[in-house]
Predict the 3D structure of the following.
Amino acid sequence: MEQNDRRTVVIGHKNPDTDSICSAISYANLKKLATGGDYIPGRAGQINGETRFVLDYFGVEEPEFIQDVKTQVKDIEIRHMAGADKNISMKKAWNLMQEAGVVTLPVITKDGALEGLITVGDIAKSYMNVYDSSIMSKANTQYSNIVETLEGLILVGSENAYFSKGKVLIAAANPDMMEYYIEPHDLVILGNRYESQLCAIEMGADCIIVCEGASVSMTIKKLAQEKGCTVMTTPYDAYTAARLINQSMPISYFMKTENLIAFERDDYIDEIKDVMASKRHRDFPILDKDGKYCGMISRRNLLGAKGKQVILVDHNERSQAVDGVADAEIQEIIDHHKLGTVETIAPVFFRNQPLGCTATIVYQMYREAGVKVEKKIAGLLCSAIISDTLLFRSPTCTAVDKQAALELAEIAEIQIEKYASEMFAAGSNLKGKTEEEIFYQDFKRFTAGKVTFGVGQISSVNEEELEGLKDRLIPYAKQERENKGVDMLFFMLTNILTESTDLICVGVNAETMIENAFRGERDHKHDMVVRLPGVVSRKKQLIPVIMVAAQS
């Protein structure tokens, strides 16, 4: 099998039953062992009491809850470019962009939070639109940036100090004229003339930059030190130095810090597309759930977005699948139900067998792959078969299911009859559960032509408990049919011992349709309940009949 370096979620249907959960766990385990790939089991709903008993019995953690499988930012390729410190020079920022081939540079704090964004456009504007000779001091430019930009050398002073007052000027005139335009705290670009250097220092300049690598006398250096004037040299001529010096300003002065448009890794692609399309930005920063910077994406990244990789087990109907399955890359479908409505983007491995349980198919696949079934996996698979076949009482149960369950029980070291009784008792323990929890713990939705309907089921060995549920679930089912906008709702109260079902029917002529289709009898206490002797299987006995009756 081909190894895959992307995560693949193996997941059953909504309102998962024991087969859905146990098959997802077991098949994810098989795929991981057989391929070495990253396969994780998921669940599309809450665990019911029966399944909880199974997982606890065999010491297995419940699968991760997957609310939906819509494509998110974290599913696409994020450009993991490093963020910059706000104090770096414009020139360094430009070089970083050129090296990375980008037009936007994220600015982050020491602890990784996004602080701002600087773009090529921002740098161009700073270079073309700035005519203020005091801009360098207003930007609070550090001398280390000036030294770096001018490829210079500090002779007097500290590169950690800042040019925070005054203007930048070139001393092109003679010393007599310089006295009229040099002011305290100015930064003066000049040549090797001793008199000009002396004049600038005497007039209170905070910094002098000596061009063309000219030497500076000991007298000038000593005087500069006494006056607190920084002295540096640069190999560039005065024109070039003047042209480059603005590039030493920190990006903090020009970067955008307000109304930044950033996305989180968990954001959905469908939701950010419109935002990206409405803005002229080329790149957008991505943050993690803690607000820390992760990387950048562009509109181009969305073109190659790949959906989440998913394997569906125990269902193949879109209405039963986890939300967003239409956007996902379905890799495989392993099921034992009728063919449904799930559409795939590309051909997939689809295994569908007329057996009583998906877990039986998964057990076959373990054997076919030559992978040993460990004790706890055997326990999960056996439990799923017991649950789906009502310990071989359901008409969906085949000889293959029964043989598989017996073999798995031996591996799991359980006494199947005794274990099944405990499992069913745990599943039918309804103390403290709300009507919603009971109704939806094993519920599926179906479509027959233009008719939509839902069917829930609970199986129990306690007849009194099942009888007591009728008064609670009938009004709840009426309310839910209106809330969910379906034509009909049914709920199976299945007695495992008597192998029969009392069916709650809600909807226009729902009771009459079931009564005629099964030739059942109305419950003498509850008019909306039809008694169905011998009916225990939703999949094989109830759904096919409703499908035909609803379309007739």
In short: The mean pLDDT is 91.
